[in-house]
Amino acid sequence: MSGLVIGSGAVALAWSLSGSGDDRAFTLVGQVQIGGSSGASGPCSGDQEFGDLDKGAPVTVFDSAGRVVATGTLGSGAYDAFARCAFPIAVRGVPEGSNSYAVKVGWHEKKKITNEEARTGSLVMEFGMA
Q1: 59, exposed or middle or buried, with CB in 10 Å at 0-12, 13-18, 19+?
Q2: What is the end-to-end Cα distance of the chain in Å, rounded?
Q3: Residue 12 has pLDDT above 70, yes or no
Q4: In terms of DSSP bridges, do strands 101-105 and 58-63 run parallel, antiparallel, or are they unpaired?
Q5: Is the pLDDT of residue 16 over 50?
Q6: Are 74 and 54 in contact (CB under 8 A)?
Q7: What is the pLDDT of residue 25?
Q8: Helix (H, G, I), strand (E, B) or coil at 30
Q9: pLDDT at position 130, please?
C-alpha cells in the first residue's frame, strides 16, 4: 500500500511541476526566404533593404495581445533549390494559450500567424519575392 501512496504522490508532483496547459511552451519553427538569383547556391545573406537578414538577426514572437513572449535568432542562410536565400527560424519557449501570434524578424514589420503556423513549422516569411 505504501508504494501506491508514494507513486500517487510522484504523479501529483510531476503534474504540479508541469503546470497548466497555459504554462506550457513550444518551439516555433519556420523559415525566412529572400528572393534570389537564378542558379545561386551555397551560403547567403540579405543585402540592401534586407541587409539585416543574416545569421543571428533577432526574431521576436508576440502573443495576440501584442506582448513579447519569446525571442530567438535566425540560423545560417543558404540558397534552396529555387535559388531563394533561406534562413531557419527556431524560437524556443513560446507559451501556449494565445489565440494567435505575430513574428518580427530584424527591422521588418510583424507578420500575424495562426496557431497552426506557429506549431507545425509551416511559417514562411517571404521578403523580396516577385
Answers
A1: buried
A2: 70
A3: no
A4: antiparallel
A5: no
A6: yes
A7: 93
A8: strand
A9: 61
- pTM listed for this prediction: 0.77
Query: How far, CA to CA in Å, does 74 sit from each of 3, 15, 37, 118?
Result: 49, 34, 21, 16
* 4, containing H or E segment: helix 2-18
Sheet holding 58-63, edge to edge: 68-73, 58-63, 101-105, 111-113
Whether the CB-CB separation of 55 and 45 falls below 8 Å is answered with yes
Mean pLDDT computed over every residue of the chain: 81
Cell numbers at 13, concatenated: 508532483
Q: Can you tell me the mean pLDDT for 1-12?
A: 40
Whose grid coordinates read 505575430? 102
Phi, psi of 60 (to 5 degrees): -120, 130
Integer CA distances (angstroms), 82 to 38, 78, 124, in order? 8, 11, 14
